[in-house]
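#struct-help
A.M.: can someone run this one for me? Single chain, 268 residues.
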Amino acid sequence: MTNCGVSQDLGKRSVDPPGNTTELDVDRIVGGNTVPSQTKYPWMVYLRSSPNQFTCGGSLINDRYVLTASHCIYPDVSITYYVTLGDLDFSTPYETQAIRIPATALVHYHYRFKGNLPTDNDIALLRLLTPVNFAAYPHIRPICLPSGDRPVIGDTVVIAGWGRVKEKGQTSAKMLEATTQVVSSLYCRKNAPAVNYSNFFCARSSRSNICNGDSGGPLMYRNVRGYYQNVGISSSSNCRKSEGSAYAKTASRCKARPVNAPRESLSR
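D.P.: on it. Structure tokens below:
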């Protein structure tokens, strides 16, 4: 079985002690730092609703399934999506060995929204039409699903994606990363009062935030054993630094029908 949640990057940031990531390690997405290597987060993917239409981010959880946000899929649940894996910079085909696989979507039965704001169960699966061959593509690996009660308020977590670098700005061709901190839902309720926060985390940073295009990407917690877990899915944000953003919890949602993690899903 392929190990999940293992960063393959040998740079300074990926060899920091487990559970000891700080805001000094990675600074921003809105204003984000470029991820130094695709193998740092080898589970990161991006979606296209047509071969040339960038939609959202996501994360590979095993050889057949990608976890993303329901609002990235709904209401176009019956179309074919195109999932790109193993990429770092989608403006050039040469820096990594990226692959693109068609996929079908499954949105949570109880996904709810109000206007453009997801309010509950903002979680979806994409089933790849062909499984990832990990032997042929060793730089592509899945992320773990959570197996405990972390993160909790005060924990530092990591976000990454190709979203906008500023409010109303352009999306980034290169994958960016940032650290943020899990905080009380009070920091999110001002901008998103209708969200069911029993199923969402709120996280914020004075120097960074997710923005349009980062939706569906993972909120990553590095556990004490050094494995990265997808503990939340980027759901809603106003892109402004210092303001809270909402992330759909994966721990309980992945166990509930219909978006239950398939048996071959990995966790640690």
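A.M.: thanks! The longest strand covers residues 99-107.
D.P.: also worth noting: Confidence is low (pLDDT under 50) at residues 10-28, 256-267.
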